[in-house]
UniProtKB/TrEMBL annotation:
Domain named HTH iclR-type: residues: 3-65
Gene Ontology MF, one: DNA binding
Keywords: DNA-binding, Transcription, Transcription regulation
SMART domains per UniProt: HTH_ICLR
BP-aspect Gene Ontology terms: negative regulation of DNA-templated transcription
Name the UniProt record assigns to this protein: IclR family transcriptional regulator
Keyword ATP-binding belongs to the record: no
PROSITE patterns: HTH_ICLR, ICLR_ED
Occurrences of domain IclR-ED (ranges): 66-229
Lineage: Bacteria, Bacillati, Actinomycetota, Actinomycetes, Micrococcales
């Protein structure tokens, strides 16, 4: 039997993320939740006492540094859904190139799982797990499909991000770890939330980009059907 108070506490935290910069007043939050101001205040004040929320100089509530630490821990150690892992393994077999899964982590994209093809005599070096949001294909996907994006922080990128949304993918041709590489990335969506970005990467010219793009888009569709969320 579920505890209603726990479910409501989680709902407060999730609703808080819908506001610009993740901060809002009790009155605005209560309207969004459809609760009374008194009930909303009880939950946010309890979260503040527990150290999960803080108030700024305007008395608006926002997530505390403690919540940020928890979020970083969750990104690093939360299990990647088995459906994602299976999809990545299938893509490696199909494309014979490295496949990565990255998530949004503050001001960067972080690769939390990576699968490499088994090539004889291959030299495998540790991949850099941190990607720039503005220049990497995975970063652009995570920004474009982030339901909570603060657009004021990404001024000048509106057209590029809208193009990614319309296409359903992002591509990049740039230097990475000293090599010029081609990358194609697609989002993995769940009920309007971007769970992460699947990408394929290889030295420039080694794979056919349209073929890789089609494989990733098809994999995304299958994966979201497996997850039972569709391609929202």
């Amino acid at each position: 039997m579920s505890l209603q108070s726990v479910s409501k506490t989680i709902l407060v935290l999730e609703t808080l993320l819908k506001f610009p910069d993740g901060r809002t007043s009790v009155s605005e939050l209560s309207r969004e939740l459809g609760w009374s101001r008194a009930a909303t205040h009880q939950y946010v004040s309890t979260l503040a006492e527990a150290g999960w929320l803080v108030q700024n100089t305007r008395r608006d509530y926002q997530l505390s540094p403690r919540a940020a630490v928890f979020g970083r821990f969750a990104i690093e150690y939360a299990a990647v859904p088995v459906e994602v892992t299976r999809t990545m393994e299938a893509l490696v077999e199909d494309l014979n190139e490295p496949i990565s899964y990255a998530v949004l982590n503050g001001n960067e994209a972080t690769i939390i799982e990576r699968h490499e093809p088994k090539r004889p005599f291959a030299i495998i070096r540790a991949a850099e797990p941190h990607l720039d949001l503005r220049t990497s294909a995975s970063g652009m996907v995570l920004l474009a499909f982030d339901a909570h994006i603060d657009e004021s922080r990404w001024e000048g990128m509106e057209d590029a991000l809208e193009t990614v949304r319309q296409q359903g993918y992002a591509e990049s041709h740039s230097e990475w770890l000293g090599d010029i590489v081609d990358v194609v990335a697609v989002p993995v969506m769940s009920a309007g939330e971007c769970l992460g970005a699947l990408s394929v990467i290889a030295p420039a010219g080694r794979f056919d980009i349209p073929t890789a793009r089609a494989a990733l888009l098809e994999a995304r569709q299958r994966l979201e059907q497996e997850l039972g969320v569709g391609s929202s």
